[in-house]
Amino acid sequence: MTEMATLEFAIRFHTPFRISTGYARPGFDAGVDAHRPLPSSSLKGAMRATALRLLQPRSDVVDAVFGSTAAECPWLWHDAVPDGRWHETLPAARVAIDPHTHTARPDMFAVAEQIGADTARFTITQRLPLDEATQRTHRLVLAVAGQAIRSIGANRRRGLGWVTITCTTEELDHAAVDRFLELKKA
């Protein structure tokens, strides 16, 4: 077995983002947690979805790295921490457009919070033992999935949550990307 690994990621935010708490707050239909706006569960979910999209139809590889009902996840995600501090939350209005009149529907208006930062960091630590070859594959999948993410949170196609994520502990050169793409064929 190999030594337990830690992967580190840097995030550059290009726009504010919103990962809602699931609860309304006074004046907001959807609030964010200003102290923990980018939780580990959201990072893991975004990375898993990205890995699944990139590696289809090889969901077995994704299940091995991220866990499944049949196998425990060997990795632990940590919340994003800003390099400085999170920006103040800001309100953002959302409206629904009536498909027939192409006007805003008065009954479909919502005010939600959004938040941001200039940059942040998060880590993923290995929590279960892996053999050397498996660990190398997992680290590759995690690094590529992280760097392939272009947006996080809600309303990603509407200008929110645009990011650049870089794995600072794994070198992703052309050979590494080729190894990753070979996983689709195996």
What does this structure look like?
- With 186 residues, the protein is of the alpha+beta class.
- Helices cover 27% and strands 24% of the residues.
- It is built from four helices and seven strands.
- The strands form two sheets. Strands 1, 2, 3, 6 and 7 form a five-stranded antiparallel beta sheet that branches.
- Strand 4 and strand 5 form a beta hairpin.
- The radius of gyration is 19 Å and the shape is elongated.
- It starts with 5 loop residues before the first strand and ends with a helix.
- The model has no long low-confidence stretch (mean pLDDT 89).
How would you summarize what this structure contains?
The protein has 186 residues and is α+β, with helices and mostly antiparallel strands. It has helices at 40-55, 59-66, 132-148, 174-182; strands spanning 6-13, 75-77, 81-82, 90-97, 104-114, 119-126, 163-167.
Beta-strand segment tally: 7
**H/E series:** EHHEEEEEHEH
For the biggest sheet, the summary is: 5 strands, antiparallel
**Shape by Cα distribution:** elongated
Count of alpha/pi helices: 4
Mean pLDDT, as a whole number?
A: 89
- The helix/strand class is alpha+beta
Cα gyration radius (Å): 19 Å
Question: How far apart, in Å, are the first and last alpha carbons?
Answer: 23 Å
Report the helical percentage: 25-40%
Strand content: 15-25%
Uncertain segments are none
